[in-house]
Amino acid sequence: MRLFAALLSNLDLTNKTNERIEVILQYFNSATDIDKLWTIYILSGNKIKRQFTSTQLRTWAIELSGLPQWLFEESYQSVGDLSETIALLLPKNNTHSNYTLHEWVQKIEFASKLDEPQRKEFLSNAWNQLDAGERFAFNKLITGGFRIGVSQKTIINAISIFTNISANILAHRITGKWHPTTISFHELIFEDRIHTDISQPYPFFLAYPIENDVAELGEAIEWQTEWKWDGIRGQMIKRKNELFIWSRGEELVTEKFPEFQLIKNILPDGIVLDGEILCYTDNHPLPFQILQTRIGRKNVTSKILKEAPVIFMIYDMMEFNGEDIREKTLSHRRSLLNQLQIHKPLLLSKEIQFDTWGDLTVIRERSRENFSEGIMLKRKSSNYQVGRKKGDWWKWKVDPYSIDAVLVYAQKGHGRRANLYTDYTFAAWNNENKLVVFTKAYSGLTDKEIQEVDAFIRKNTLEKFGPVRTVTPQLVFEIGFEGIALSSRHKSGVALRFPRILRWRKDKKIEEANTLADLKILLDIDK
Asked: Whole-model pTM?
């Protein structure tokens, strides 16, 4: 655990990619293969099964620390991270353990067989054997809260240097459903498992947003363009007459979309399709909020199937006749797609026909009329790459909806922003001339603006409700968002999709902020 704790600490000391890669390489050179395997698993966003609730952790930590509850809670609000708060406040350890990362994981998982008093005893003994840094790592293991800002690309590049295996190959090998208890480090990294794990997906190729004039991309004829749809990016895999559906978050979601089994006998074997899962009816997509009604449900009822019917909108193909074709050009992959027998619940994303960039600009302005977020641009000569790469795939979204809103509540952030108020709640005017909360937003301000807003909040706090501060309504911000829907869960009656701060409207008084009526006008536009 000492090695793993040092890894987390050293990764947190820098935000430079090359330095983080060097830190991971140093860890790999010292750790056992089983600990390397668990580290890859955890840093890739996977979690071990949680055996302790946050309430249990807080209660037992307060008891062991001997601190009054109010002081523990104030410390937590200042630090912004429960794992770190507990690690810092507990008394210094009396003994020390030499258990490794995977041995601690085994012990944590064994805790599921214990009753509550035994789990409390286990946790107390564990904390007493670990120093502050090791406790922090241990607490992260038991809470599953590894937010250390290390991208999977950084991890893959470090493994690539360590093993001298191409990053693209490694990205494919660690993609999908695997667990350190059922595979070895050698099997994961050095063997091609596609013949033993027929469900294994490929890493997704992701697009960058257009930053400059679209005409700077070169000749228009070199580009394939399609509508950008708002659903769940996914892969449809058929191997050995079995059908698998993966989400972009590397979650196997086959059972959530039983209607796709209807086309299993139509698709050829040894094929992997890249596309978007959309709720779809009357020849157009439905709002994302309808698709959300199917996300997270354990059972998909006939009622849900009827109210939220889905299709798989095909964008691309990565495997054909059992062969990895990602190195082929987009034009070649598209020609293979055109040869498939495609009908609902499969649809092929149509190419947008245009002659000049000016034509495409006009077409893009009609995106919402076509129930789309904008346009995708893909170089016809491009191969299918791994992750987000600039140059060959771009997304050109329409400008977001926007509304001017009043800041009414604030809360401190987490991690490096634990001492700053960075989580904001905004309100709009109702027909009784009262401010009604309608959304939260966490991003969009510069570091300097965050400091200014933080200072304002501290000087203009009206009430405190735990970590939340009621703020004097005085600051106006322009809030951008991608979509809007009716919502019975919110007092405002609406819910926004991807809200963020576009700018601080220092030029406006709160009386000039928008109303809920203004928001609801957008409901008709967004349909």
From this structure: 0.76
Catalytic residue list: 228
285-288 long-range Cβ contacts below 8 angstroms, 24+ apart: 285/229, 285/230, 285/231, 285/371, 285/372, 287/483, 287/485, 287/526, 287/527, 288/230, 288/231, 288/483, 288/497
Contact 61, 86 (CB under 8 A): yes
* Tokens found for residue 261: 């089994």
Class of domain 205-397: alpha beta
* Cα–Cα distance for residue pair 32/20, rounded to 1 Å: 20
Q: How open is the CA angle 183-200-350, to the nearest 5 degrees? A: 165
Spans of all domains in the chain = 205-397, 401-526
Beta carbons within 10 angstroms of residue 496's beta carbon: 26
How is domain 401-526 classified at the architecture level of CATH? Beta Barrel (2.40)
pLDDT band at 369 (very low <50, low <70, confident <90, very high): confident
| Token duo for residue 60 | 């037992």
Q: What pLDDT, on a 0 to 100 scale, did the predictor assign at position 405?
A: 96
Residue 237 structure tokens = 């895999």
8 Å CB contact between 75 and 87: no
The whole-number pLDDT of residue 149 equals: 67
**Comparing C-alpha atoms, which of 194, 183, 192, 153 is closest to residue 45?**
153
